[in-house]
C-alpha cells in the first residue's frame, strides 16, 4: 500500500483496548535502539530524555518537556529508522518516508489541531546506530481520532522504513512512560516500555557524526551513490549521473586564478560576479551549472539527502568546467561547495546556533577530491537590508530562501557555518555600501590575494 493511503481499519475507542488490540508486558525490541531522544522546543533549544536509563547526575526534569509529554493532552513520538545494514538505499528510503510523514502530519486530519515538533532518536556509544529523524505530535485535546489516524499512517508505510510509534502516558505515581505501538500480523499491539527520564545534553549534537553520510558528502562517490539509488523513481537522476560520468575524476586548475563569490540571496552576488568578471576578463560560471538548471525544481522537492547529493554533484561538474577555463583566463564562480555545505548543515541539525558543529570540525573541511579555488569571497549585508532588497526584486523565492526569511535562527546557522569553513576559508566583504565601493573592495582583495 503506498504511503499516504488510509487503510480502512476499525477506529479504536478512546480508552486503551478494543478489537484488534492487545497490550503486552514486555519491552519491544524495536525500542532497544534508539534509547535517547532530543526534542526541539519552540525556542530552538533541545530537551534530551532517555528510556529506562538512570537519570544523569545533575539532570533535572525540564518543566517544558513535562508539559509537552504529560496530561492534560496526549503526545506521540514517531521516528523513522533506516533498515539495518541497508546502506545508502536504506537512508534514501527512510528520508522519503520521513518527508511523506511530515506532509501527512501537517495536512492530514485530525492532525491540524496538533503541535508538531522535530524529534531525534540516537544511541550514543553505538557507531553502527544512525540517528533516527522523526516528530513529536502533541494533541492538546487528546482527540480519540488521533491515535487511530496515526496507526493508519503507520500501517501504510513500507515495512523496511516503517516509523516507530510511541505514546506517552503518566502512571499512577506521576512518572512518564513511553508505550510502543506495533503492527504484527495485522494486529495492533501496545508494548510497555521504560520510564522517561531526563538526561544531560551531550557535548556534540547527535547528528554531527552522521553528516558525511547523509548531507555533507566528503567526496564525489558518496554523493553519486545516493543518486544511483534514486534512478528507479526519479528519471532525471540518471541524466545527472550521465553528466557526472563525463567529467574526469581528477582535474587540476590552470595557471589563472579561480575566485568564488558566496553569500545569501540579495547580498549582491549577481552584480559583483558580472562586474568583476568583466573587469578581469574572466569567465563566469555558476553552481549548479546551467546544464543542470532544468532539474533544480525537481530535486528541490526531494528530501535533504537527495537534494544535497544533486547539488554536490553539480560542484564536480563545475570543477571540470573550471579546470578547462582556467587554462585560458581567470574564472569567477557564483557559489560553489561552501553554499552546498552550509545549507545542508543548517537544515539537518535541529536546535539553535549553539548546536552547530564546533569550529574546526571536519564537516567544515573542503573535500579532498574537489578542485579548490584560490579565493572565496563572502558577501554580507544586514538582515534588514537584505529584506528590502528581496522585496524590491519581486522574484519567487525558493523553499530555502523562504526559510531564511521566516526563520532567523536558520539564517544565523547558515551565516555562522559560512564563517567556520576552512581550507579555503571565506573572506568576508560588507556588501552594504554603494555598488562602486563593494566592487572596489572585492577587486582589491582579488588583486592582493591572487596576483
From TrEMBL:
Xref: Pfam families: Thymidylate_kin
Return the EC number. 2.7.4.14, 2.7.4.6
Location of region: Disordered: 1-21
Q: Where is the Thymidylate kinase-like domain?
A: 261-440
What Gene Ontology molecular-function terms does this entry list?
ATP binding; dTMP kinase activity; nucleoside diphosphate kinase activity; nucleoside monophosphate kinase activity
What are the record's GO terms for cellular component? Answer: mitochondrion
Subcellular localization is given as: Mitochondrion
Sequence intervals crossing the membrane: none
What catalytic activity does the UniProt entry give for this protein? a ribonucleoside 5'-diphosphate + ATP = a ribonucleoside 5'-triphosphate + ADP; a 2'-deoxyribonucleoside 5'-diphosphate + ATP = a 2'-deoxyribonucleoside 5'-triphosphate + ADP; CMP + ATP = CDP + ADP; dCMP + ATP = dCDP + ADP
The similarity comment for this entry is: Belongs to the thymidylate kinase family.
- Name of the protein in question: UMP-CMP kinase 2, mitochondrial
The species this protein belongs to is Heterocephalus glaber
State the encoding gene: Cmpk2
